[in-house]
Amino acid sequence: MEQQNTSQKNVTDADAKRVKPTLFIGLGGTGAEVIMRLRRRIVSEFWGKNRVRLDTVSEFPAARFLHIDLDQRAMSGTEQSSDADPLSNAVKLLQSERIVDNLDFEGYQKGNRMEYFPHIKNWYPSDRLRDLQIDPTTGAAQIRAISRLYFYDKFTQIRTAVAGHLRELQAGVSHQSALTRLGLETGADRRVVIIASAAGGTGSGSFLDMGFLAKALNVGPTGPVDLILFLPSGYSGANKQRTEANSYAALMELDACMSNSVRYVHPQYGWGPEHDDIRPGAEARPFDSMFLVDTKNMADVVTNNVRDVYHMIADILFEDFMPGDFADAKRSIDVNQKQHRALPLPQSLGEGTEKAKELYPRSYSSIGQCTLESPQNLERFARHLRESQDRVRALFQIMDNPQDCSPSVKETEAFFKDGALKADTDADQDFEEALQEEKIPSSAQEIVNNAPCGGSLIIYKLVKDILGDNNALDHNLLDYVQEKFSNLLAHDDPETKKINIQTARKEIMHEVEIASGDKDSGKRWREIEANRSKVLEKTWAQLRAELYARLDDRKRGGLDYVVELIKAIQGRLQNPQTGIIGKLGSLVRQYTDILDALLGENGFNGAAERLAETRKGFMGLGGGVKKAGIIAEEMQTYLYWALRIKLLIKATQDLATMYGAIVDRLGKAIGTDDNGLETYDGLLGDLMDNRAHVRATLDILGAMVRRAEQQQSESYVM
After folding, report:
1. Is residue 220 within 8 Å of 170, Cβ to Cβ?
2. At 352, is the secondary structure helix, strand, or coil?
3. Which of 64, 101, 269, 480 could join 119 in a cystine, given CB atoms 3.0 to 4.6 angstroms apart?
């Protein structure tokens, strides 16, 4: 007999330690916050001996989820998921896991419609709600009756969903291979956990009906239905008077239901005529265990952020699925805790009344987490925090003084020479070759040699990119000019020649000068402008890639370095004395001086006067024709180089404009922050914001280090 009892006890202990397949029902916003954190923990964990990671929560056979809410915007926050979230597809709720739908609130308010719904009419305060102009698509508006109306309105859908998830749990635990793969050992009983807040509308108004329904569907001798109810302190910012009133009403109703002093669900009408089979009986209670949680713990330590409690509850619920001695012990003592809560709590009525006792129920519990620390653990924790600081600094290469990692002048110049900005220059090789081969007449050569640039045409490499196809056409410009001059020598009359000369010049310059009201003018001019936009986008994309590559450069890079490098680049471009944009402006003025010389009295205009005065020669011997040909050739050369320089002026001006746009995209100061530090827009602003976040993380780690060191010191004193 003793051996048999021992065997039964061992079986009981083994069963108690097994994981209970659990359906988690989140009501309202609070329920959603907790179950989404729990889902994230499940897919982030390494399960079993082979450390398996799940692709989706649906692959976890020991848990199912259901979220119920009126708020059509529910689950749109960071805990649901986003495109930038790597766990987005893994944690998001499926359509079968959500009941978030419209409520025909106005329909229930019209006329005598409530006469058709006696199971609702017996508790629904329609007269009080009629004039509140409630929009149920934004939630229950902190009105508990709206939430309960929604529960009744969607009852068939809710019942079907709960029953379906319970069946899935039962089927899931029968797949032993899937459980073994995850290192899970489950029992036969199914558990339902309802998570809600007493302070709002959705959860506060429907958690009791949800408890009764879950008890009716989760049939089994030890299939518990547990409640985790958040108290109002974490929601005081959302109309404290209303949240506390809702919580008081919810707790009073909960206490009445647990003591069987009221029939919360109407004994005759229940949840409607179609659901008489699950109408709660007189002895029914909605929950087996109830846990009230708050933002203040037993040591009177308060958190100002209720999300801290969301995380804690999710961690506690997640621990129920974990293997190990702690989780096994936690599950095995659950039966003892329930037996303890079943007994009343006797309390003395005061002095002289020792024998008189007042009995209070132990039905309500709370849960929390704590950490046991030793001096050695604190020392180890502080060391890990300092190492984390060092790792963050090393990862982002953050310096105590950003100026310590500023790029040198040589590094900045190398960035311009070898990078996307291409700020180095070349001499115009065509012009140099023309000088060497004496293809340019001495008169044109003299004009150019006397120009401020000293006989060489300096061109920035990016100017050639902006010229694009127009630069390739330079080799055909002379033919283009000669074609326009082909008929100039056919007329002896000086005035006719002058007219022809000016007409030819106008036609040649038509493509590089924009005339007001002439859409066809400045064709090459407009092509250069269009090409500048393409070069700008290409250069900007390459520059961003080069800067982001420097972020990951362990030898010479990092956040601080790139921020200072961007400032150095901007200075190199726009410095009033030495900046490249200023140099481009000087170069444009030099080009303009050459252009004026080529087209002036010592150039094209003077030659035009001489050409107009030529004749065919004495007695028709042709001396005038020969002279006219020489002058015409000079004029063609002048116009050829004038056209080239006109294109250079435009492309150089556009390069200066492009550099200015890059300076703006890199970022400019737009004001100061609360600490008096300059704030920026553009890429620089993004990087400085990121640097501020990293420094804030370092500050938090630093504060944690100091706190750990202080706790360590205090522990040694004790």
Report:
1. no
2. coil
3. 269
> Which candidate, 142, 161, 146, 152, places its Cα nearest to that of 239?
142
User: What CA–CA distance (Å, rounded) separates 642 from 694?
Assistant: 56
The pTM of the full predicted model, rounded to 2 decimals, is 0.57
**What average pLDDT does range 76-99 have in this prediction?**
70
Residue 48, classed as helix, strand or coil, is coil
Q: Which of 221, 160, 159 is nearest to 190 (CA)?
A: 221
Whole-angstrom Cα distance, residue 482 to residue 522?
Answer: 20
Element (H or E) spanning 193, and its range? strand 191-197
Does 219 have pLDDT greater than 80?
Answer: no
CB 231 within 8 A of CB 294: yes
Buried residues in 9-40 as b, exposed as e (16+ CB within 10 A): eeeeeeebbbbbbbbbbbbbbbbbbbbbbbbb
Please, which pLDDT band fits residue 182 given cuts at 50, 70 and 90?
A: confident
Q: What is the pLDDT of residues 426-435, one digit of tens each?
A: 767 776 676 6
Residues 258, 259, 261, CA angle at the centre, nearest 5°?
115
Q: pLDDT tens for residues 363-394?
A: 888 888 877 767 777 788 888 888 888 888 77
Alpha-carbon Rg for the chain, nearest whole angstrom, is: 42
Angle between helices 623-666 and 559-574 (to 10 degrees): 150
Alpha helix locations (H) across 554-674?
A: 559-574, 580-599, 604-612, 623-666
C-alpha closest to that of 614 among 603, 598, 630: 630
pLDDT at res. 470: 56
Task: Say if CB 611 and CB 501 are below 8 A apart.
Answer: yes
**Residue pointed to by tokens 């309202």:** 28
Query: What token pair was written down for 601?
Result: 């009295």
Q: Closest by alpha carbon to 604, among 432, 447, 496?
A: 447
Task: Identify the bridge partners of residue 672 per DSSP, sorted by sequence position.
Answer: 678
Residue type, 304: N
* Residue in 87, 71, 83, 68 with CA at minimum distance from that of residue 23: 68
567 to 118, 419, 562, 685: CA distances (angstroms): 74, 16, 9, 11
Angle between helix axes 202-217 and 28-44 (nearest 10 degrees) is 60
Helices and strands (H, E) in the chain, number of each type: 28, 13
Give per-residue pLDDT as tens, 594-629. Answer: 788 777 777 778 877 777 777 544 444 455 667 777
Amino acid at 282: A
Report d(CA 145, CA 141) in Å as an integer. Answer: 10
| CB-facing half-sphere around the CA of 323: CA atoms within 13 A | 13
- Tens of pLDDT, residue by residue over 332-358, are 777 777 777 777 778 777 776 666 777
- If you search the block for the tokens 């330690």, which residue do you land on? 17
Per 3-state DSSP, what percentage of the chain is helix, strand, and coil (rounded to 5)?
60, 10, 30
The segment with the largest mean pLDDT, out of 13-22, 263-272, 564-573, is 564-573
Neighbours of 575 (CB within 10 A): 13
Cα(first)–Cα(last) distance of the chain, in Å?
A: 53
CB neighbour burial string for 653-687, b if at least 16 within 10 angstroms, e if fewer: bbbbbbbeebbebbbeeeeeeeeeeeebebbbbeb
